[in-house]
Every structure is written in C-alpha cells, then in structure tokens.
C-alpha cells in the first residue's frame, strides 16, 4: 500500500512545487512589470522636465539675444549721440577759436604797423612785448582748432619755400614765454620743406615751453641736432628740471608712439592737453618722439626724429633761391650782446634771447629762487608735472605743453608766414637794441 502511494506522493509534491514556482514567477513578473511601469513613468517625467528645461533655456536664450540686440542698439545710439555732441562741441570750439585767431591775426598786423612807425625805444619795446603776447594767444587758438578736429587733416597745397632748421627753431622761440633760457647748439645746416615748417615749429615750441616751464629758472634748455644714417635728423631738447619717473615715461612714450584715434586723442580730461596736441602733430608729420631721462640723471630729454621726407633737397632749395622762388631774410646789422639778442659764436653755443615779455618787463636776470616741485598724475593716468618756478602752480586751463596748429589755409603760405613771423621777431631785436648801441658809442 505504501509502495503504491509513493508515486502519488511524489506527483503531488511535484505539483505543489510547480504551483509554487508558477506563483513565484507570476509574482516576479508582476513586480517586474510594475517596476517597468514605474521606471517608464519616471523616465517620462524626467523627459518632460528636461523638455521643459530646454524650453526654458530656449526662451531665456531668445530673451538674452533680444536684450543683447537692444543693448547693442542702445550703445550704438549712445555712441552716435556722443559723436554728434563731440562734433557739435568741436564745431563750436573751432568756430570760437577761428574767430579769436582772426582777431589775433588782425591785432598782430596792427602791432606790426605800429612797430614800423614807432621811433621811441621804450614804447617800441612795449609794442614788442604785446606782439609776443599776441603770438602766444594765436598759438592757444591754434591749439583749440587742432583739438576740436578742424586742423587734424593734412592740408593739401603747393609746396612752400624751404626754411632753415635754425629759422624753424627761432620761430618756435617766438611762441614761448621763457625763450631767453633756450640755448641752440650744434645745429647742422638742414632745410625743412615749407609746407611743414610751421607745424614743426609748433612741435618744437611745445617741447621748449615744457622744458623751460619745468626746470629751475637758473637752468637753460639745450637744443642740439644731428644727422642719422637713415637720412633723418634727430633733434634733442634737454632740460635739467624735475624729471619724470620710469612709469610716467613709459605712459607718455606709449601715448606718443601709439597715435590711436584722433577723436579719442582730441577729447579727454582738461589736463595733458600738450601731450595730445603733440601726438596729433606727430601723426600728421610722421615724427617719432620719445622722452628719456637725461644722461646726467636730472631732467628730461625729448628726442624728435624728423623724417627725411620732411627735409628739402639742398640743390632744389638752391635752385629756388637762384630763380627767386625762395625768399631771403635780410641779415641786418649785428646786435650787441648786452641787448639780449640772438647771437651765434663759431664753435660755441648760440644763445637765443630777446626782451622778456613776462609781467610787462624787459629782459633781465632770471630769478634764483625756485619753489619745491611736485609731480602729480591726471585722471587719465597721464603724468602732469607741476613747475616750481617762483612758486607758481600749473593750472588746468593753462597747461604748458601745447603745440599749435594752423587754421585751414594754403600750405604754400606756411613758410612765408614763418619768415614773416621770424622777420618781425628779428627786426624787433635789432630795433630795440639800436638805441642802446648808439648810447654805447656816444
């Protein structure tokens, strides 16, 4: 009996095991399906979130693009408005400067007429002082024209008669205040093209004015020149003033070398106007200007490389002089040294000095008292040296470094204007010294 029930028991046990396995498989399958459904739902939710995030990013990017376009447009509008305001302001300044320049030119013409008819030495000296002040006023008006943008372009015109480098430097002396402290030494016989002689004289006037303003009143500013192998002429303007730090020199030389945009150069803070004017003139003429500490360690030396393209061929200049195309300045009679005139000694320095126009006084010994000097930096980062002569402080509306430009006119008249200005300068010296010479002979 037990033998017969054994297979049945095994079959029953197998059936139970099969049922259990089937139930397990069903449970596993149900849980697997449930897990899959949950995973799919999670993935679907994640995809929905990702799609919504992408949509948000797309909307944000589109909004950002719109904001960028609007900002660029606003910036362009602001730039155009600033350019228009600068242009309008520059036109106003140029108009005022041109009107002042016309009046100063008329004043100079009237003074020349009075000087020609005046015989009294005292009144004649006063007229020369007024002439010198008017010349400096003209230079300031020309600076305004250049900074306003009216004189930034190279003026076309017929070539003028060449001018000696010595005459260009003398004309520069007539435009500065402390001209009696400038020594011209070792100048080679160089001819400058007439159409650039006037602008070049303004560059030298700026450097000379800067050197005399920021050096002790007992020290002279020395000017030398020499030829370079490249055909250029190097002109050195050395002072023995307060000097500049290495950082200031790097900043100034970077500004002089990187001429940049004339609109950016012509506009800025009210300080360092002379640096911007020199930079504009250097770009116009193609000059290379660099400032260095003097070899003696005190003072600053400005080196100006005049390109060969600005120099006249001596043979051509001789031909123009022979054919009447080059105006000759009459030498006049020599002026005694006690008259403080410009004299030249063979093998020695040339001392350029004329009656002093400062404070309405004649030429005399320079003050031996110098106030302490300080060095400041402008808001634009450019150095501003403060002169220490007679305790005077530099004023923002009267910066010493300021070369000048010419109002728009025929470039052929530049050399004639230079000679006219220089002729009056020298004639004034001779006529002012003539009564003293006659008194000495008496």
Please tell me about this protein's structure.
With 442 residues, the protein is of the alpha+beta class. It has one domain (87-441): Heat Shock Protein 90, CATH 3.30.565. The chain has helices at 2-117, 121-147, 165-173, 194-213, 246-257, 262-266, 273-285, 314-322, 413-441; strands spanning 163-164, 182-184, 191-192, 221-227, 233-238, 288-293, 300-306, 343-344, 350-352, 374-377, 383-386. The chain starts with a helix and ends with a helix. Mean pLDDT is 71; it is low at 152-158, 323-415 and 432-442.
CATH class: Alpha Beta
Query: Structural class, judged by helices and strands?
Result: alpha+beta
Distance between the termini: 179 Å
Shape: elongated
Q: In summary, what is this structure?
A:
The protein has 442 residues and is α+β, with helices and mostly antiparallel strands. The protein is 54% helix and 10% strand.
């Amino acid at each position: 009996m037990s033998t017969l029930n054994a297979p049945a028991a095994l079959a029953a046990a197998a059936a139970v095991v099969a049922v259990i396995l089937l139930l397990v498989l069903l449970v596993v399958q149900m849980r697997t399906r449930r897990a899959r459904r949950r995973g799919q739902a999670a993935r679907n939710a994640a995809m929905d979130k990702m799609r919504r995030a992408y949509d948000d990013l797309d909307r944000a990017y589109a909004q950002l693009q719109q904001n960028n376009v609007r900002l660029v447009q606003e910036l362009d509008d602001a730039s155009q408005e600033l350019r228009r305001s600068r242009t309008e302001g520059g036109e106003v300044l140029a108009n005022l400067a041109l009107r002042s320049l016309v009046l100063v030119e008329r004043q100079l013409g009237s003074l020349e007429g009075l000087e020609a008819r005046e015989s009294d030495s005292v009144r004649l000296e006063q007229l020369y002082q007024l002439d010198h002040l008017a010349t400096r006023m003209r230079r300031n008006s020309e600076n305004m024209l250049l900074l306003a943008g009216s004189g930034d372009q190279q003026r076309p015109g017929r070539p003028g008669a060449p001018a000696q480098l010595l005459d260009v430097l003398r004309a520069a002396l007539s435009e500065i205040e402390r001209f009696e402290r400038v020594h011209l030494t070792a100048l080679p016989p160089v001819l400058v093209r007439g159409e650039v002689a006037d602008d070049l004289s303004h560059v030298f006037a700026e450097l000379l004015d800067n050197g005399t303003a920021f050096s002790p009143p007992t020290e002279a500013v020395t000017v030398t020149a020499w030829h370079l192998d490249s055909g250029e002429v190097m002109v050195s303007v050395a002072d023995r003033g307060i000097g500049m730090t290495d950082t200031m020199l790097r900043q100034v030389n970077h500004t002089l070398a990187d001429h940049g945009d004339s609109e950016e150069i012509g506009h800025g803070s009210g300080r360092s106007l002379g640096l911007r004017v020199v930079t504009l003139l250097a770009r116009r003429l193609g000059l290379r200007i660099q400032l260095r500490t003097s070899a003696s360690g005190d003072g600053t030396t400005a080196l100006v490389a005049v390109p060969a393209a600005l120099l006249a061929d001596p043979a051509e200049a001789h031909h123009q002089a022979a054919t009447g195309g080059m105006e000759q300045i009459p030498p006049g009679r020599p002026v005694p040294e006690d008259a403080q005139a410009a004299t030249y000694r063979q093998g020695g320095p040339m001392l350029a000095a004329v009656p002093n126009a400062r404070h309405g006084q004649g030429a005399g010994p320079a003050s031996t008292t110098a106030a302490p000097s300080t060095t400041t930096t402008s808001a634009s980062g450019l150095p501003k040296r403060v002169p220490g002569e007679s305790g005077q402080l530099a004023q923002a509306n009267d910066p010493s470094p300021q070369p000048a430009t010419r109002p728009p006119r025929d470039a052929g008249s530049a050399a004639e204007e230079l000679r006219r200005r220089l002729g009056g300068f020298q004639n004034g010296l001779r006529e002012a010294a003539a009564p003293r010479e006659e008194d000495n002979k008496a």
